[in-house]
Every structure is written in structure tokens, then in C-alpha cells.
Amino acid sequence: MNSRNLSTRAYVSAAFFVALAFAIRLALGPLIQERSPFLLFVLAVLASAVMHGRGPALLAVALSTVAGLWAFIEPHYELKLVAVDAATNLAAFLATCIGVMILTERLRHAQAAELIAQAKAQVGALRYEALINSIEAGFSLVELQFDEAGRAKDFVFIEVNPSFERQVGLVDAQGKSVRQLLPALEEHWFETYGRVALTGDSIRFESGSEALGRWFDVYAVPMSGTKPHEVGVLFNDITARRQAEEQVKQLNRDLEKLVEERTRRLEQTVDDLDAFAYTVSHDLRAPLRGIEGFARILRDEHAEQLGERGRAYATRIYMAAERMDQLIQDLLAYSRLSRVDLDLKTVELETVIDQVLADHAAMISAEQATVVVERPMPAVRGARAVLIQIVANLLTNALKFVPRGRKPHVILRTQTRGERVCLYVEDEGIGIEDEFRSRIFNVFERLHGQEHYTGTGIGLAIVRKAAERLGGAAGVDPRDGGGSRFWVELAAGKADRPERKPQ
Amino acid sequence: MSERASIVLVEDDRDDADLIVHAFGKATIANPIEVSADGQSAIGRLDERACAGDQDIPALILLDLKLPRRSGFEVLQAIRANPLSQTWPVVVLTSSSESGDVRRAHELGANSYLVKPVASDALLDMVRTLRSYWIVLNRTAE
Question: How does pLDDT run across B15-27, given as a tens digit for each residue?
């Protein structure tokens, strides 16, 4: 809208110039010779061309031609010299106008280009200034100086931004050479900037400077400015970050050392524990054998001298010794479970159960117990000896904890859920109250006095520990209709290579 | 030289030695029993007997592992190292049930490995087994 208004005004203005020239020509008519009818009109065209450009100038030419022909050239209807003269005048006028228009057009173009370039440069400079003055990063424009061999030997700070001083710690650097400001600066800085200036490839790197006592994150970019070998260097002081990183590394090293030290001490402790367990298994049991053996000999072979009470006491001595022996053996089994490396294989659960049943045949018949095994059973992943321990402990548990006068009835069954196998040992025994259900798997946790149900209180702890060592779990639920249902969840065995041979 | 070959018991614990000897008595084993209380003297005495020749071959050597001066393993090694005694029947009788000990005893050539039971019933059972397997069988084999 605006531009159309402008051009309309330009055309009106051109018409006005022509009208003005016409009026002046009329006014000055007598003074001007008939031979130059278009003289003043050239001025109107020139003014239009200079001020408004090609379009209005063309209008001015057209109007001038019409006005000149109409007012100042008399019509001739025959081919006379005067007519030739007028035509010549008109041609000269038009040629002049075209010349004027071409020249002014060129002039206007050149002017516009220069103006645009100037404006662009100004905007660029302003932007550049605003940018480097406002950024946190340090910036310097440096000019590299090379020796005869083409090695960068120095650089001069052509320009630095306000952040430069804070980032690099150099005051009033502008215009000075870095050799002058910082004679100790490392060679690699010259090499790097020299390479940027010569190759024209920018580079980003992190480097420390001992001379400055700082670390920098640097972006060096070639600047094809007025001088050759100018490089723009944008950088951040990353000393704090570097120090933090260094600190973290140091802390990690310390931590590793600490872990090593602790591990070593832990290994020492484990070794000590092994030695302790060995001592317990050998030396603690030795006197027990004496107590048990001699008490029994006393009772069996010296019964006469002892009398009835004496015999009863001797019996209690050797029974106590046997209990203590069982306790030591269970503790050993428990501690061995924690420290021995287990070689896990695929084991047929049925063969494990068969072996446990065979081992406990005497106990089962003594208790007049019924043991039902729901076959077939799947293979599980485990170590045979450990699985035997689990099943034996659960079986003896089920045989032991029955109400007085009841015959034990035990069911062993399995359930496969995907990759897991759950072995259930169900009894119709005395059951376990809710509040004790989680506690009975702890070492030495006993719910009953020795006089009711004998035991060391380690059996179920062994079951849980053993299940965990095999990557499984153990627990107990109440059974519908009374009694308990102990369960052990294990990984299913792989069908390909079952380990059938009993150890 | 007695009519029956003797049984050698290498055992440093006097109580254990007495109980084992007692159990042998109860199991009616008539072979004389010689007790060595440390590894060093056991090696010396067994060496002497090996050099004495065929007449003095022990019916059975019962060997504890944890012994003063020389361990049971060293005694076993010495017996197996001597060509004159390398076939003698050696049964390790110890309180250790550590699998490492069992494996090592077998590697060194023990004929059997038994863990000393605390219950004397079990000890008697064990001695009876020893009699029927090692002593009776060995004698009839001669």
C-alpha cells in the first residue's frame, strides 16, 4: 500500500516536473529560439530519473514529447527542411533522455549497493560486538606470527572481549604479544593456533596451561579478516571442573584401595573362619567322644557299682554329649554352606528323594510313618549333596513334629511354574503359629523345649541357606486341614544332561 | 611275633585310642593292637617293620590325620613311598569330614576314609565293619 502510494507520488512528481518545464518554456518562449524546443524538458526528465527512477522518467519523456510536439513545433504537412529539423530535435531529445536515464539508473544502483553493504557491515559489526561483549566465554582475535621455517613463534591480541581478563587472568592484553605478556606459555598453544591459521581448519580441544595455572576448553577458528593468519579463540576456564574431575578420580582410586584393603581383610576373616570351623570340627568333638564313650562304658560295664541313679546320670551324660555333637555337626554344615563354592548341575529330584528315603528308612519305620512321593518329579538345578541336605532336613522335621501318639504322614510333591520348580513337603503335624512362621528359619530358633521335640534349631536355617545358595528360596505355609506345608523353590534343571549318578 | 598280625593304631588322643581299643575288644577282634601317639614315631616303627620282611605285615593300619610332629598325610606318604609297605591296608580314621581332607587321603593312597563318630554305638558298628571287611578278608586272602 505504502509503496504504491510512493510510486504514484513519483509519477505525479514527474508529471509536475514536465508541467513546470512546460510553464517555464512558455514563459521564456520569446527568449528561446525555436530550434531547441525540448531543452527544458531534458531537465524535467533528468530530475524525474534522478529522484524517482526509470518509470517516472519514462512518463516525463512521454509527456515532454507530447507537450513539445504540440506546443512548440508547428505542424508541417510537406517534406520540408523544417520538418526534418523538428524530427532531428525530437530524436536528439529522446536520445538524450535515454542517455540520462541509463546513467542515472547506474548511479542509483551503485549507490544502493554501497548503502546495503554499509548497512550489512554495520549490522554485522554490531552483532559481533554485542555477541563477544555479552558472552561468558573469553574471546580473543589473535594474529599469528611465523618464523622463516613457517613455525608459529608468537601471536598478538588484536581484540579481546570483557570476559577475556577473567577467563585467562591477563590484564590489558589488547595489542600486546603473548610472548611479552606470558613468556612461559607452552609451545603447544603456538603450534595449535599456527595450524588453524595455516590450514583454515577450526579445532576444539581441552588443555591445561601451567604458565596460567588453568585448564581451558578452547575453540579456535580461522578468521579471514583484513590480515592473514588471524585466529578467533573462544575459550572457557574449566579449571574448577577439571579439579572436580581429578578429585573424583582420586576419590575413586582411594575407594578402590579401600575396597581392596577391606576385601583382603574379609578374605583373611573368611580364612580365619575356615580355620575356626576346622578346629571346631576336630578339636571340639574330640573331648565329646571321650565323654560319650566313657559314660557309656560306665553305664554298660560298671552298672553294679553305679546303682540305678548312677546309671541314669551316666545315660544323661552321654545323651548330652550326643546332642552337643549333633549341634556341632549342624553348625559346621551351616557354615560350610556359606563358604563352599557350589558347582550347580542338573539333578533329578526323584533320585535325591529316593536316597534320602533310603538313608532314613530306619527312622521312618521306627516312627511308623507314611511317606508319599508324588511322581514323576522334574529335574532341578542344584548340587546333589546340598539338595540331599534340604530334603533330609525337611523330612526329619516333618517326621519329628507330630502330636504325641500320632503317626506321621508326609507328602512330597512338586509343581513346575515356568523355569521354577517348587518342592512341597506337607505334614499333618502340630503346625506353626503365624507369628513364628518367619522366625523358624533363623539359626537356633526353636519353638519347643528339648523335652518335647529334640533338635538343634539349625535344621531349617540350613534348608533356607541351602536353597539360597542354589539360587532359590524356602518357606512355610499352613496346610489346609492342619499341619504345615514347607516349600523350596529352585531353578528347573535342563533336560539335556541330567546328573543321575549318586555321589 | 604273634600268631595274628597286629593292628597299628596311629592316634595321639589317649581317650580316642582307649575307646577304639575298647570297641575292638567288644567286637571280639583278637589281633594285638599297637598304638603310636605321634606321626614321627609311627613312621619309624612302620619303616622298621617293612624292613623286617613278610612276617610282620600289619593286618590293618588305622591312621589319624591330625598328629603331633608329622601329620597323618605324611605318615601315609611314607608308607606308600616305601616299596615294601606300599600295599599295606591303611584306613584313615579321623574327626575331619572336610572334603579336602577326604580327597587328599584318597590321592595319597588311603584304602578307606572313616570319620570318627561320637556315639559309641556307631563306633562299634564301624569297628565291626572294619573287622569283616579288612581283617577277616585280608587274613583269608593270605
Answer: 999 999 999 888 8
Chain B residue with Cα closest to A327: B118
Helix A285-301 / helix B120-130 crossing angle, nearest 10 deg: 90
CA distance B117 to chain A (A): 7
pLDDT score for A257: 94
SS3 B69: coil
Contact between chains at A282 and B95 (C-beta distance less than 8 A): yes
C-alpha angle A294/A297/A299, rounded to 5°? 110
**Which among A293, A322, A332 has CB closest to B19?**
A293
In angstroms, the Cα distances linking A295 to A215, A286, A312, A358 are: 83, 14, 10, 31
Please tell me whether residue A73 adopts helix, strand or coil conformation.
coil
Q: Is the peptide bond before A162 cis (omega within 30 degrees of 0)?
A: no
Task: Tell which residue, A23, A3, A84, A13, has the closest CA to residue A50.
Answer: A13
For B40-97, how does the pLDDT look when each residue is reduced to its tens digit (9 = 90+)? 888 988 888 888 776 778 888 999 988 888 889 999 999 999 888 888 889 999 887 7
The β-bridge relationship of strands A230-237 and A214-222 is antiparallel
Chain B residues with CB-CB distance to A289 below 8 A = 15-16, 19, 95, 116-118
| Angstrom distance (rounded) from CA A154 to CA A262 | 54
With CA atoms as reference, report the closest residue to A487 among A445, A441, A430, A436: A441
Could you give the dihedral angle defined by the CA atoms of residues A280, A283, A288 and A294, in that order, rounded to the nearest 10 degrees? Answer: 170
Q: Does A175 touch chain B (CB under 8 A)?
A: no
Short-list A328, A384, A389, A395, CA closest to A361: A395
Q: Do B15 and A318 touch (CB under 8 A)?
A: no
| Cβ count near B109 (within 10 Å) | 15
Confidence band for A106, pLDDT divided at 50, 70 and 90: confident
Three-state secondary-structure class, residue B105: helix
State the DSSP code for A340. Answer: S
Bridge partners, A240 (sequence order): none
The C-alpha atoms of residue A450 and residue A440 are separated, in whole angstroms, by: 15
DSSP string covering A18-62: HHHHHHHHHHTTTTS-TT-TTHHHHHHHHHHHHHH-HHHHHHHHH
Q: Which residue has the cell 571280639?
A: B28
Q: Strand, helix or coil at A405?
A: coil
- The single-letter DSSP state of residue B135 is I
Query: Which residues from chain B sit within 8 angstroms of residue A321, using beta carbons?
Result: 118
- CB-CB under 8 Å, A322 with B120: no
Give the gap in angstroms from C-alpha A322 to the nearest C-alpha of chain B. Answer: 6
Enter the C-alpha cell of residue A432. Answer: 506353626
